[in-house]
Design brief:
alpha,alpha-trehalase activity, hydrolase, three-stranded antiparallel β-sheet, Trehalase, 6hp_glycosidase-like_sf
Length: about 575
């Protein structure tokens, strides 16, 4: 006993800064500790997430005891073969605690399908409507009776998952999934998912990134209030809203209390929000990658990098040159410093949530003082956004690096989130948004809006395009009074539908992301293989088909492109004369 203690102490001293920050959760198997370290560093599985998704086959105390004995028998360096045997004996196959579930409110058809005039697109939409049955999951009762045997966090109600390695719920993904579910006329499924999220807020004070204990200390872009708004608008279930309005407020408090930052400019100080996860250690689900990445750094800097990577995961953009800093390691993942940046999209999401809360309180619950408080918060945020993030000349908002006191001038679709979130005060923003897209030549990308113009090999960068980012820009422009902006929105929608439809025609699969550099194909880059399914991709396609179903075509590309090119060339030659 004493010897083990000494060894652990020595280990602790040796690893030094490992103790500086608390671990990402308190499970000594799924979140931190020697068992996790040895198994993940031995790379028993191609993807580190596999191991932390495996349920135990006996109580955690027994597993730890048995691991302690094994470690001692091998002088604390267990050979791979023995580790493999240990895992096989003490763990069950990954994700078997989740069972497939056919949503009770699923039915053969849905009204919106009738709006789609192109027969091929309509047949495709019918297949996507079927996919909810493949992406539905419920938990085995053991997750409730023996939570300590699982990394899965218990949820009472079944839910829709993204797909592939993402077999549990994810926070911001669920918003676009819910939009799709409402089009498929499945409000009961949406309500169950909402209840799960509200329960999590009651238990933890916030919604974790995803439904596993190792995601507990980080959240994801805050869209819960919007989810509730969409559900209530669809169902008119005001009772449900009023029962839960305090919980919505609690979730927003988390962002105010734990994710605020004071930014000063021109002698004034403003409060805005950021992604920030002050927990140490490698991410359990990408443990060996994080550990190896940190090997390139001085020991004292490793903990900080791991916290920044978790903040990157919290942003939903994991990972991206958007979070890289300049400096010696610029353009590399190890220069990630997410928490030093005030992101446009996060603040626009919160601005929208504040608007919705003030409406909920004034119109539905008749609580004028609370309504006024959220109106004030929104007004303060608009002032801060205009002072710190907005660039009048460029016509968009930009992420702000508050340590270096400067905006990031790069193009990201997220820079237009204030349009989507109706969070701006200057009506001239419509023309400016179009100019911003043209200046960055975004409309020349025919297969989808790129995530950035940087080729970093990270998955939230060029040449990948993601469904939620298409939605941010398309619906942002479509909201504007300018007919030109609305026409561009349609064109972008048509581009995205063609890419998704073409890939589906060839592969019968919907992907989490697409590579737009090579005619549109499944995306790549980042930490894991491209995943199939796929919750938010399906949701966004259904939303676009619902909105523009009478105009969209599945037809061949060149028909539209050639005359378009001709016009552009003509215009350009006129200009040069
Ligand atoms: C056990 O490992 C330590 C340090 O790695 C080493 O000094 C020691 O000789 C080893 N003992 C045996 C019995 O192999
Ligand atoms: C921001 O700064 C002001 C003035 O320096 C201070 O009163 C306030 O408490 C700070 N707020 C936060 C969230 O740090
Ligand atoms: C308004 O909401 C606040 C916060 O929940 C509560 O303390 C207050 O009593 C409510 N006021 C009215 C008039 O309902």
């Amino acid at each position: 006993k004493t010897w083990t203690l000494c060894l652990l102490l020595l280990l602790g001293v040796g690893l030094g800064s490992l103790e500086a920050l608390p671990p990402p959760c308190d499970s000594q198997i799924y979140c931190y500790g020697d068992l996790l370290h040895q198994v993940q560093m031995a790379k028993l599985f191609p993807d580190d997430k596999e191991f932390v998704d495996m349920p135990l086959s006996m109580a955690p105390d027994q597993v730890l005891l048995s691991f302690g004995e094994l470690a001692k028998a091998h002088n604390y360096s267990i050979p791979r073969q023995q580790l493999q045997e240990f895992v096989t004996k003490h763990f069950q196959a990954a994700r078997q605690e989740l069972q497939s579930w056919i949503p009770g409110d699923w039915k053969d058809s849905s009204q919106f399908l009738q709006k789609i005039t192109d027969a091929k697109l309509r047949a495709w939409a019918e297949e996507l409507h079927q996919l909810w049955k493949k992406l539905g999951k419920k938990m085995k009762p053991e997750v409730l009776s023996h939570p300590e045997w699982f990394s899965l966090i218990y949820s009472q109600h079944p839910f829709i998952v993204p797909g592939g390695r993402f077999a549990e719920f994810y926070y911001w993904d669920s918003y676009w999934v819910m939009e799709g579910l409402l089009l498929s006329e499945m409000p009961e499924t949406v309500k169950g998912m909402l209840q799960n999220f509200l329960d999590l807020v009651k238990s933890y004070g916030h919604i974790p990134n995803g439904g596993r204990v190792y995601y507990l200390q980080r959240s994801q872009p805050p869209l819960l209030t919007l989810m509730m708004d969409r559900y209530v608008t669809h169902t008119n279930d005001i009772t449900f809203l009023l029962e839960n309005i305090e919980t919505l407020a609690l979730e927003l408090n988390f962002w105010t209390e734990k994710r605020s930052i004071n930014v000063s400019s021109g002698g004034k100080s403003y409060i805005l929000n950021r992604y920030y996860v002050p927990y140490g250690g490698p991410r359990p689900e990408s443990y060996s990658k994080d550990a190896e990445l940190a090997d390139t750094l001085q020991e004292g800097d490793r903990e900080a990098l791991w916290a920044e990577l978790k903040a990157g995961a919290e942003s939903g953009w994991d990972f991206s040159s958007r979070w890289f800093s300049g400096g010696p390691n610029s353009n590399s993942l190890s220069s990630t410093r997410t928490s030093k940046i005030v992101p446009v999209d996060l603040n626009a999401f919160l601005c929208q949530a504040e608007e919705l809360m003030s409406n909920f309180y004034s119109r539905l619950s008749g609580n004028d003082s609370q309504a006024a408080q959220y109106r004030n918060l929104r007004a303060q945020r608009l002032t801060a956004l205009t002072a710190i993030l907005w660039d009048e000349e460029k016509g968009a908002c930009f992420d702000y690096d508050f340590e270096n006191g400067k905006k990031n001038p790069e193009f990201y679709p997220s820079n237009l989130t204030p349009l989507w979130a109706s969070c701006f005060s200057d009506p001239a923003i419509a023309d400016k948004a179009l100019k911003y897209l043209e200046d960055n030549q975004i409309l020349t990308y025919k297969y989808g809006i790129p995530t950035s113009l940087q080729k970093s090999s990270q998955q939230w960068d060029f040449p990948n395009a993601w469904a939620p980012l298409q939605d941010l820009v398309i619906r942002g422009l479509a909201k504007l009074p300018s007919p030109q902006a609305q026409e561009v929105a349609f064109q972008l929608a048509q581009n995205w539908i063609r890419t998704n439809f073409d890939v589906y025609s060839k592969t019968s699969t919907m992907y989490e992301k697409y590579d737009i550099s090579n005619g549109g194909q499944p995306g790549g880059g980042g930490e894991y293989q491209v995943q199939e399914g796929f919750g938010w991709t399906n949701g966004v396609v259904l939303m676009i088909l619902d909105r523009y179903g009478d105009r969209l075509t599945s037809g061949a590309w060149p028909a539209l492109r050639k005359p378009h090119c001709l016009v552009v060339t003509l215009l350009l030659s006129l200009l040069t004369i």
